[in-house]
């Protein structure tokens, strides 16, 4: 199956953008796959990937600004202080996905993120320590998990994180640039490759 499609603007993009071009193309062109070191953005993304479980990314993306407002901009130090009153507040917020287990997981993971920064120096240093070898992924968009996503998921769970299964973690790795999974022929693939070459890996 062809993993690219020509868009109305004449650019060839990953075919998944065609579901909702107006919403997905800007995200695809400017964010997806570009390497990220900002801890808050990394925490936001792994939280939203957890919320996506069983849903579409389009659904989550449409609600992203609501999620940011509800979860203090995904400042994990602030979210770590959330209590049961915040859980109830979030369960009443129609702008987000109202799932108690996922909401409680984000709060739990914020506390684990604070611990991780204390131990590892930053979330970025930890996550980029799991950047897989290039040969692991192979043909773009042919996998939903990988040996590295399985290993990362296992390690996060050992550290007490929740809603971080191998598929969720693999989607996080795709989005945050730990791999370049743009389809061959997608006009953004080369841009991501350049960004990854110029990127200084955190230590």
From TrEMBL:
<dbReference type="InterPro" id="IPR011257">
    <property type="entry name" value="DNA_glycosylase"/>
</dbReference>
<dbReference type="Pfam" id="PF03352">
    <property type="entry name" value="Adenine_glyco"/>
</dbReference>
<protein>
    <submittedName>
        <fullName>DNA-3-methyladenine glycosylase I</fullName>
    </submittedName>
</protein>
<dbReference type="InterPro" id="IPR052891">
    <property type="entry name" value="DNA-3mA_glycosylase"/>
</dbReference>
<dbReference type="InterPro" id="IPR005019">
    <property type="entry name" value="Adenine_glyco"/>
</dbReference>
